[in-house]
Protein backbone atom coordinates (compact mmCIF):
# COMPACT_ATOMS: atom_id res chain seq x y z
CA UNK A 1 0.00 0.00 0.00
CA UNK A 2 1.12 3.53 -0.69
CA UNK A 3 1.00 6.57 1.55
CA UNK A 4 -0.72 9.66 0.16
CA UNK A 5 -0.52 13.29 1.23
CA UNK A 6 -3.75 15.29 1.06
CA UNK A 7 -3.01 18.97 1.69
CA UNK A 8 -3.95 22.58 1.09
CA UNK A 9 -2.19 25.93 1.61
CA UNK A 10 -3.77 28.31 4.13
CA UNK A 11 -4.70 30.83 1.43
CA UNK A 12 -6.92 28.22 -0.29
CA UNK A 13 -9.30 28.02 2.65
CA UNK A 14 -11.49 31.09 2.23
CA UNK A 15 -14.25 30.38 4.72
CA UNK A 16 -16.28 32.88 6.74
CA UNK A 17 -15.94 32.90 10.51
CA UNK A 18 -19.36 31.32 10.98
CA UNK A 19 -18.56 28.54 8.52
CA UNK A 20 -15.06 27.91 9.91
CA UNK A 21 -16.30 25.99 12.96
CA UNK A 22 -18.51 23.78 10.77
CA UNK A 23 -15.60 23.14 8.39
CA UNK A 24 -13.44 22.09 11.34
CA UNK A 25 -16.11 19.70 12.61
CA UNK A 26 -16.60 18.24 9.14
CA UNK A 27 -12.84 17.80 8.63
CA UNK A 28 -12.56 16.06 12.00
CA UNK A 29 -15.42 13.74 10.99
CA UNK A 30 -13.48 12.73 7.85
CA UNK A 31 -10.39 12.09 9.97
CA UNK A 32 -12.42 9.94 12.37
CA UNK A 33 -13.81 7.98 9.40
CA UNK A 34 -10.27 7.44 8.08
CA UNK A 35 -9.19 6.22 11.52
CA UNK A 36 -12.16 3.86 11.69
CA UNK A 37 -11.26 2.55 8.22
CA UNK A 38 -7.68 1.93 9.38
CA UNK A 39 -6.13 4.17 6.70
CA UNK A 40 -5.16 7.23 8.79
CA UNK A 41 -1.41 7.68 9.36
CA UNK A 42 -1.21 11.22 10.74
CA UNK A 43 -2.17 14.78 9.99
CA UNK A 44 -2.30 18.31 11.26
CA UNK A 45 -1.61 21.85 10.30
CA UNK A 46 1.54 23.91 10.01
CA UNK A 47 1.88 26.29 12.99
CA UNK A 48 2.41 29.48 11.05
CA UNK A 49 3.24 31.38 14.26
CA UNK A 50 6.53 29.49 14.54
CA UNK A 51 9.03 30.36 11.79
CA UNK A 52 10.85 27.54 10.02
CA UNK A 53 14.53 26.95 10.61
CA UNK A 54 16.75 26.05 7.65
CA UNK A 55 19.64 23.78 8.67
CA UNK A 56 22.66 23.44 6.37
CA UNK A 57 24.76 20.33 5.83
CA UNK A 58 27.46 21.98 7.97
CA UNK A 59 25.02 22.20 10.88
CA UNK A 60 24.43 25.96 10.72
CA UNK A 61 20.84 26.94 11.47
CA UNK A 62 19.16 30.05 10.08
CA UNK A 63 15.63 31.23 10.84
CA UNK A 64 13.47 31.09 7.73
CA UNK A 65 12.91 28.66 4.90
CA UNK A 66 14.45 28.69 1.46
CA UNK A 67 14.37 32.34 0.33
CA UNK A 68 13.41 31.36 -3.23
CA UNK A 69 10.58 28.99 -2.32
CA UNK A 70 7.00 29.81 -1.30
CA UNK A 71 6.31 29.16 2.37
CA UNK A 72 4.70 25.88 3.38
CA UNK A 73 1.41 26.59 5.14
CA UNK A 74 -1.96 24.98 5.70
CA UNK A 75 -3.17 21.57 6.67
CA UNK A 76 -2.35 18.02 5.68
CA UNK A 77 -3.39 14.44 6.17
CA UNK A 78 -1.39 11.31 5.37
CA UNK A 79 -3.35 8.16 4.56
CA UNK A 80 -2.19 4.68 3.59
CA UNK A 81 -4.52 3.10 1.07
CA UNK A 82 -4.24 0.35 -1.56
CA UNK A 83 -5.11 2.42 -4.64
CA UNK A 84 -4.89 5.92 -6.04
CA UNK A 85 -8.64 5.80 -6.63
CA UNK A 86 -9.24 5.27 -2.91
CA UNK A 87 -6.85 8.14 -2.12
CA UNK A 88 -8.81 10.35 -4.55
CA UNK A 89 -12.03 9.37 -2.81
CA UNK A 90 -10.64 10.49 0.56
CA UNK A 91 -9.33 13.73 -1.01
CA UNK A 92 -12.82 14.48 -2.32
CA UNK A 93 -14.25 13.97 1.16
CA UNK A 94 -11.59 16.23 2.68
CA UNK A 95 -12.15 18.94 0.04
CA UNK A 96 -15.88 18.95 0.78
CA UNK A 97 -15.26 19.11 4.54
CA UNK A 98 -12.67 21.90 4.32
CA UNK A 99 -14.60 23.79 1.67
CA UNK A 100 -11.46 24.15 -0.47
CA UNK A 101 -9.47 22.26 -3.08
CA UNK A 102 -6.97 19.69 -1.86
CA UNK A 103 -3.74 18.49 -3.46
CA UNK A 104 -3.13 14.75 -3.62
CA UNK A 105 0.43 13.43 -3.79
CA UNK A 106 1.88 9.97 -3.37
CA UNK A 107 5.00 9.33 -1.31
CA UNK A 108 7.79 7.51 -3.12
CA UNK A 109 8.73 4.12 -1.77
CA UNK A 110 12.06 3.75 0.01
CA UNK A 111 12.75 0.38 1.64
CA UNK A 112 15.18 2.00 4.10
CA UNK A 113 12.47 4.37 5.34
CA UNK A 114 9.77 1.78 5.94
CA UNK A 115 9.14 0.99 9.57
CA UNK A 116 7.64 -2.18 10.86
CA UNK A 117 5.99 -2.40 14.21
CA UNK A 118 5.99 -5.46 16.37
CA UNK A 119 2.49 -6.81 16.89
CA UNK A 120 1.25 -5.85 20.33
CA UNK A 121 0.58 -8.70 22.72
CA UNK A 122 -2.86 -7.77 24.09
CA UNK A 123 -2.45 -10.20 26.99
CA UNK A 124 0.41 -8.13 28.43
CA UNK A 125 -0.13 -4.81 30.24
UniProtKB/TrEMBL annotation:
InterPro entries named among the record's database cross-references: Dimeric_a/b-barrel (IPR011008)
Protein's organism: Leptothrix discophora
Species lineage: Bacteria, Pseudomonadati, Pseudomonadota, Betaproteobacteria, Burkholderiales
UniProt keyword terms in alphabetical order: Signal
Name this polypeptide is given: Transcription initiation protein
Signal sequence segment: 1-21
Amino acid sequence: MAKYLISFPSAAMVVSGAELAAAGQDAHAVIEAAKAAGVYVFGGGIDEGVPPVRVSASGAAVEGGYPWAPPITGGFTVLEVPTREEALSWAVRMAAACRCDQELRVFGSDAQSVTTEEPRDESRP
